[in-house]
């Protein structure tokens, strides 16, 4: 006699495998109002208009990204060379041997914060990240019992700080607002304010809070010390990523490093007095660093706006497909109901 043994399984034969099965996202539920198909058709029309608007804003932001990125890439080598050369001069002299207030370390009692934000929204978390960085820095200064002077560059940052009762905006400057590439004239306005605050000893330290442009998908808010001129300046980074157009599509290409500098010879001699050299370079240094911060912030803003509009276009397309499915179902149900009414009427007429 042959016995057949049937395998016995638990209620869940492969519990470990079943846990690894990813769950699909829940579908978008479309609810019809009293209008039915007419209401869904109106929603489709509205979604189409929104998608066209976001696509247009994406293309405009992409064009601005290319100009802003060119400005960032072209200004980085000069700013890096100037910062390195200025640091080299400060290493060759002793701060106590000359009377130059930008080199003399002083106890920090008050800090000037220059916060760079945008004038417009619809750019994802660009403004929120810079404002959060500034709020964190203000809280740190408050915990250290240090005073501050706030210089707000951009409408979004100014409107945020105006709503706070514990923060006072001392200077407000309107940024470019995504309209054009920052110029040296705009940077000079901020540099004059910073220079006067520091030279009159109203503040002991000046810090810049802006968004550094790393790539089209990555922008990082940073805090940099502008004055006094102490410590080695960090490298300005490489060329980053460049937005190009090939075969009718937007593509991103990585560039090699630009602006690499040779070592400055240690035996370099200067005919002029070190104070005269530093006096001539400090204004150019302030202007170049603030201009670079403006350009980095502008490039980060338009890149964030391009990504936000791209995500909005994709979400509009997904929502349009869901509404279209619901509209087709509603339309099909309406047509089926009408056919049933015609058939029922025809059958009723056959009895007469």
UniProtKB/TrEMBL annotation:
PROSITE patterns: ATPASE_GAMMA. It is found in: Plastid, Chloroplast thylakoid membrane. It is a peripheral membrane protein. Pfam families: ATP-synt (PF00231). GO terms for molecular function: enzyme regulator activity; proton-transporting ATP synthase activity, rotational mechanism. The keyword Membrane applies. Keywords: ATP synthesis, CF(1), Hydrogen ion transport, Ion transport, Membrane, Transport. It comes from the Eukaryota. GO terms for cellular component: chloroplast thylakoid membrane; proton-transporting ATP synthase complex. Belongs to the ATPase gamma chain family. Produces ATP from ADP in the presence of a proton gradient across the membrane. The gamma chain is believed to be important in regulating ATPase activity and the flow of protons through the CF(0) complex. HAMAP family: ATP_synth_gamma_bact. F-type ATPases have 2 components, CF(1) - the catalytic core - and CF(0) - the membrane proton channel. CF(1) has five subunits: alpha(3), beta(3), gamma(1), delta(1), epsilon(1). CF(0) has four main subunits: a, b, b' and c. This is F-ATPase gamma subunit.
């Amino acid at each position: 006699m042959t016995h057949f043994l049937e395998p016995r399984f638990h209620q869940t034969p492969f519990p470990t495998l079943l846990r690894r099965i990813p769950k699909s996202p829940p579908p978008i539920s479309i609810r019809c109002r009293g209008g039915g198909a007419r209401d869904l058709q109106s929603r489709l029309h509205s979604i189409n208009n929104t998608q066209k608007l976001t696509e247009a804003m994406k293309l405009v932001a992409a064009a601005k990204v290319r100009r802003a990125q060119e400005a960032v890439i072209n200004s980085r080598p000069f700013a890096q060379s100037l910062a390195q050369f200025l640091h080299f001069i400060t290493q060759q002299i002793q701060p106590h041997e000359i009377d130059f207030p930008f080199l003399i370390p002083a106890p920090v009692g008050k800090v000037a914060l220059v916060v760079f934000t945008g004038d417009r929204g619809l750019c994802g978390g660009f403004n929120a990240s810079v404002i959060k960085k500034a709020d964190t820095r203000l809280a740190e200064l408050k915990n250290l019992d240090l005073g501050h002077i706030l210089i707000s560059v951009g409408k979004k940052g100014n409107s945020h700080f105006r709503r706070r009762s514990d923060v006072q905006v001392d200077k407000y400057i309107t940024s470019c607002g995504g309209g054009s590439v920052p110029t040296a004239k705009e940077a000079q306005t901020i540099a004059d304010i910073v220079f006067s605050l520091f030279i009159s000893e109203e503040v002991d330290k000046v810090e810049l809070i802006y968004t550094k442009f790393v790539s089209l998908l990555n922008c990082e808010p940073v805090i940099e010390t502008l004055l006094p001129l102490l410590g080695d300046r960090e490298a300005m980074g490489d060329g980053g990523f460049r937005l190009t157009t090939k075969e009718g599509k937007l593509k991103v290409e990585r560039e090699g490093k630009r602006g690499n500098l040779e070592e400055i010879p240690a035996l370099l001699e200067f005919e002029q007095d070190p104070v005269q050299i530093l006096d001539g370079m400090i204004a150019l240094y302030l202007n170049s660093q603030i201009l670079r911060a403006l350009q980095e912030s502008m490039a980060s803003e338009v890149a964030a706006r391009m990504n936000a509009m791209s995500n909005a276009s994709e979400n509009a397309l997904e929502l349009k497909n869901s509404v279209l499915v619901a509209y087709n179902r509603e339309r099909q149900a309406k047509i089926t109901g009408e056919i049933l009414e015609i058939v029922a009427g025809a059958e009723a007429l056959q009895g007469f």
